[in-house]
Amino acid sequence: MKIGELAQRSGLTAHTLRYYEKIGLLSYAQRDAGGQRRYDDSVLVWLAFIGRLKASGMPLQTMLEYAALREAGPQTEAQRLQLLSEHRLQVQARLAQLQDCLQMLDRKILGYTHTLQRMPQYDHSLPTRQQRPLAKRSAKTR
Q1: What is the DSSP letter of 121?
Q2: What is the pLDDT of residue 138?
Q3: pLDDT tens digits, 86-108
Q4: Of 89, 14, 91, 76, the residue nearest 47 (C-alpha)
Q5: Per residue in 32-50, pLDDT tens?
Q6: DSSP annotation string for 36-84
Q7: Residue 101, CA distances (Å) to 25, 26, 50 in order
Q8: Are 60 and 51 spatial neighbours (Cβ–Cβ below 8 Å)?
Q9: Measured by CB atoms within 10 angstroms of the end CB, which terminus of the chain is less buried, N or C?
């Protein structure tokens, strides 16, 4: 497939695909007689994988390291496993943090829901806040 079709099928732009190729995240594409890039379907699997790495917060530098190890062949599987395992721990920690945030939001929303059920005019009955007068400063001479 040509780069336009790959862009359409992957959801990425042709510019992004060229950039990924330039930095080494995507292997150089074979070229046809006219010099246009030609990709096979296997690149879609790779692009989906790096899309998940990106979505999970893996830094670009780590993705590039993983891509280089992948290009180096099967002898790098232990190193790739290590990279992915470390990233998995980071994702788990982030998920735990997000779960705590979600629980806090749920509690806050529940509190507002109960308050609004008890007092439908709540927002309209709040007293207006008065501003404290600014403290007067004495001018200092230098």
Answers
A1: T
A2: 67
A3: 999 999 999 999 999 999 999 99
A4: 14
A5: 888 888 898 999 999 999 9
A6: -EE--THHHHHHHHHHHHHHTT--HHHHHHHHHHHHH-GGGHHHHHHHH
A7: 33, 36, 27
A8: no
A9: C
